Amino acid sequence: MNIAVSPTAEGASVRAQVQWRRRWESELSLTEHAELADFFRKSYGRTGAFNAQPFQGSRSWAGARPEVRIIGYDAHGIAAHVGLLRRFIKVGGADLLVAELGLYAVRPDLEGLGISHAMRVTYPILHELGVPFGFGAVRPALEKHMTRLVQRQGLATLMNGIRVLSTLPDVYPNLSPTRIEDVIVVVFPVGRSISEWPAGTIIDRNGPEL
């Protein structure tokens, strides 16, 4: 997941220029998929060529395919993106409906457009989707950034000591078809209280990561 730096005064002006649109996956044209794929290659490619590889051609997703996208546009095209996918996950063996958040990225020139602004736009859509929780997973290296986001907005709870099991989007000879990772779990209470999140140290996505 790409995370921009915290917004500055200049960033406030950048945010004002970004217009957000909700796009269901079936609404996107081939041209739009190609534009998104190019956007992801440039955004994720900053952290290594390997991270840009899934977005070849017009492929605008890496693992699981989003159900709905929140896309920010400015005068230069796509500025930012958040993907959402309703799915059932298993938390400690209990089935739970969530909207997984993933495919977050910001165009490299928009250092002032942070994830906090994107979440202010995304949170009302989580309510519209009618899910009890929003769910995301970030690498431990981003814990400090996510902690600041939680403290600033109070929309989410961070959970440590949890491992997340996912299937890989492709199966390769002699390699395991699944992956388990130690991550920071981010939970957004939407239709239910955080006290109702099931106990458990293993989360099974029952599919690829978004």
Chart the SSEs and their pairings:
Layout: H1 9-17, E1 19-24, H2 30-44, H3 49-52, E2 68-74, E3 77-91, E4 94-106, H4 115-129, E5 133-138, H5 143-153, E6 157-167, E7 178-189, E8 202-204
Parallel strand pairs: 4-5, 6-8
Antiparallel strand pairs: 1-2, 2-3, 3-4, 3-8, 5-7, 6-7
Main location: cytoplasm
Protein name: Nodulation protein A
Pfam families: NodA (PF02474)
Protein described:
- By secondary structure, the chain is of the alpha+beta class.
- The protein has a single domain, classed as Gcn5-related N-acetyltransferase (GNAT) (Aminopeptidase), CATH 3.40.630.30.
- The protein is built from 5 helices and 8 strands.
- The chain has a 6-stranded mixed beta barrel.
- The protein is globular.
- The N terminus is likely disordered.
- Its EC number is 2.3.1.-.
- This is Nodulation protein A.
- Belongs to the NodA family.
- It holds the Pfam family NodA.
